[in-house]
Amino acid sequence: MRFHIITIFPGIFDSYLKESIIGRAIKNKIISVNFYNPRDYVKGNKSNYKPVDGRPYGGGAGMVLQAEPILKSFSKIEGKIKNKKRKVVLFSAKGKFFNQKMAYKWAHKYEEIVFISGRYEGIDERVRQALKAEEISIGPYVLTDGDVAAMVVSSAVIRLMPGVIRLESLEEESHWNLLLKKEKDSKVGESGLEYPHYTRPEILKYKGKKYRVPKVLLSGHRAKIEEWRKGQNKK
To answer: pLDDT by residue (tens digit) across 1-15?
Structure first.
């Protein structure tokens, strides 16, 4: 299996991937991990700084990662992925809660998994729309970034792959037994922690399609914006 991770801080993973079970899985060529930095697809300014974020439409605290650098990173991945057995995951506080059943399914169903790691206030919603990515959360709390979530999920998936851990070791685990009982997946948006974010440009063009920022976020009407955001939380 190949993992493709889109992140603006790929160095965070260096030590984690060299150690223990995951390190051995890479050494034994059971898996490979590739990184794609959105900054590599942005022109630097006079001081050679490469911005990949922007202020959110509709106002609010923090910055939002722009769609275009991430989509360009994904285009690089597409050139390497020929097999259709692939999964695109976007880590978000408003996503479906990740669980052991999902880890088992991904470990045995897919050959290519793409992780999109967010940071700051979040990722422009149009990335999810354009790539048809599944939003995943690792729990009812907010992290500083999606890199930690990528480590958690990759660890859960990798250890269930054939040849990584002995079957007898897995069968002794309580979560493995839950799998055998066919526990149901967590519900989407159960935590209700987040709403979609958008930043520049107002109209995103990708593969012949146009993805627009919702009009309410451009209105400047604070009450309507808050109402829209609350409505998104409940979906």
So the answer is: 999 999 999 999 999
- Residues 65, 38: contact at Cβ < 8 Å? yes
Domain 2-233 matching CATH 3.40.1280.10: the answer reads yes
Residue list for the binding site for S-adenosyl-L-methionine: 118
CB atoms within 10 A of CB 110: 17
Question: And the tokens for 231?
Answer: 């409505």
Annotated binding residues: 118
Which distant-in-sequence residues (6+ apart) come within 8 Å of 114 by Cβ? 3, 4, 5, 6, 74, 77, 86, 87, 88, 89, 133
Provide the pairing of β-strand 209-212 with 203-206: antiparallel
CA–CA gap between residue 229 and residue 235 (Å, rounded): 10
Which whole number is the average pLDDT over 166-172?
Answer: 63
Give the residue from 48, 37, 50, 44 showing the smallest Cα distance to 10.
37
Name the residue ranges covered by the structural domains of the chain.
2-233
Angle at 172 (CA atoms; ends 15, 148), nearest 5 degrees: 25
SS3 69: helix
